[in-house]
Structure formats: C-alpha cells, structure tokens
Amino acid sequence: MHRHVCEQRDRHGPGHPGAGCGLPERRRPLPHRRRAGGGWLPLDVDSLGVTALSISGHKLGTPKGIGLLYLRAGTPCEPVLHGGGQERGRRSGTENVAGAVGLACALGLAQRALPAAATTSRSAQDALVAAVLAAVPGAFVTGHPDTRLPNLASFCFPGVSGEAVLLELERRGVICSSGSACAAGSSEPSAVLLALGIDEGTAHSAVRLSWTQDTPPTDLAEAARAVIASVAAVRSLGAARGA
C-alpha cells in the first residue's frame, strides 16, 4: 500500500521526499508536500516533483475548513468519505462553494503580493534571527539557515525550558509556540527536531515564531527584543533557584 511522505521543509528546513529510499518502485512512498505555509514561495508541482500536494486555506487568510488537494493524473486515491460521489468521487458531501471561491481569491491575492511581501519579510526575518543569535548565548536556528520560508523563525535555547520562555513572551505580548500547531498540547519534543539530530533536552527548549504578510517589520523587531528578554528572565530565575 502506498503511503504519503509529508515534508517538513516549511517548518524547519529541507525535507526528504522519499526518492531513492531503497524500496521497490511499486512500494516507494508517493512524494507528497503539505503547504501549510502557502503563499510565500512560487509553486510549481513539476519543479517540486510531487505526486500530491495539499494547501490549508486558513494559512492564506480564508475561514477554517477549506483546503486544496492536487493529485497528479493517474495517482490512485482512496476516498475517506463515501456517498454522493462529489468532487470526482474523491470526497462525497455537499461542496463548500463559498470556501472554494474564497480560497481561489486568497491564492490570487497571495501570488500578486508574493515578490514584494517575501522580500520584505525575508529582510525582517534576517534581522530578527541576527538580533536573537547575537544577544542570547548558545541559541541556534533549527533547520537550514537559508532555505526556509520567510515568515518563520525557529530557535533552540539549550538549558532553557521552551514552555517557560513562551509564558514570558506572552507576558510581553508575543504569542508563539514551541512546535507546530498539529502538536499543540503535546508534552513530547518535536519529532522533526529529533529527526534533525537535536537531542531531546535541547528540543524541549524550542521556540517557534511565525507571522503573516501583514506583519510590519517593526513588530518583528519588537518580538526579537521580547525573545531576548524572555530567555534572559528564564535563565536568571533558574540561576536564582540554583543558588
């Protein structure tokens, strides 16, 4: 049975689409990419070499509950929902027409705004990362330093509890996370960070920030200052308790 490989490139760095994995061709995973961070990079399914691609609409500003699935011609697909045979038999049930129109509109707006928005966000991202790394001893960015979406910054702060840093950041008006939204509420470290070779203790120190095309660079500069202050506060508290 074919299985899809979901790349995590949009969160931490380049993914591994499964080509050349040593399995017979008929049993190799179908390369699948989930574009939770759609709208930031040019999208060409042929260049990506994917068999399937899915996009979450709410990441582009649509109401939650609408998405897009691309399947290359001839790709087998077993429906999860059966019934009326809507959407070419792949997903039965009344179509969400308003959501589909909204998603199409959001994709068009994102593509038109893409070049300028990506350039502005990349510059602000570089400034945020540089400020944090310069001011927080031992901090490092997870994933690839350059090949990443321009609206994400994921750090590890060894020796510090990521959850404690999140609480400090919330006090300073910055809401972020220690991992992906899919893993919200889990006490386990990010499986992606572990797969990147980061040890479990350090993975627990992760803090991940993301923003939209409408976030001004001044907000990211303020977020960088908040991260620096929050990590310092947590480390000071730990030192005081250990004294």
Explain the overall architecture.
Strands 1-2-3-4 form a four-stranded mixed beta sheet. Strands 5-6-7 form a three-stranded antiparallel beta sheet. It contains six helices and seven strands, in the order E-E-H-E-E-H-E-E-H-H-H-E-H. Helix 2 (97-135) crosses helix 6 (217-242) and helix 3 (162-171) packs across helix 6. The chain is an alpha/beta fold and 243 residues long. The protein has helices at 45-48, 97-135, 162-171, 191-195, 200-203, 217-242, and strands at 4-6, 30-35, 52-56, 67-71, 140-141, 152-156, 206-210. It folds into two domains: 34-103, no CATH class; 118-240, Aspartate Aminotransferase, domain 1, CATH 3.90.1150.10. Mean pLDDT is 80; it is low at 1-29.
In short:
The protein has 243 residues and is an alpha/beta fold.
Topology (elements, then pairings):
Layout: E1 4-6, E2 30-35, H1 45-48, E3 52-56, E4 67-71, H2 97-135, E5 140-141, E6 152-156, H3 162-171, H4 191-195, H5 200-203, E7 206-210, H6 217-242
Parallel strand pairs: 1-2, 2-3
Antiparallel strand pairs: 3-4, 5-6, 6-7
Helix pairs in contact: 2-6, 3-6
Tags for this model:
alpha/beta, 2 domains, 3-stranded antiparallel β-sheet, Aspartate Aminotransferase, domain 1, 36% helix, 7 strands
The best one-word shape is: elongated
> How many individual β-strands?
7
Discrete helix count: 6
- Major beta sheet, strand line-up: 1-2-3-4
| Fraction of residues in helix | 25-40%
What is the level 1 CATH name of the largest domain?
Alpha Beta
Quickly give the CATH architecture of the largest domain. Answer: Alpha-Beta Complex
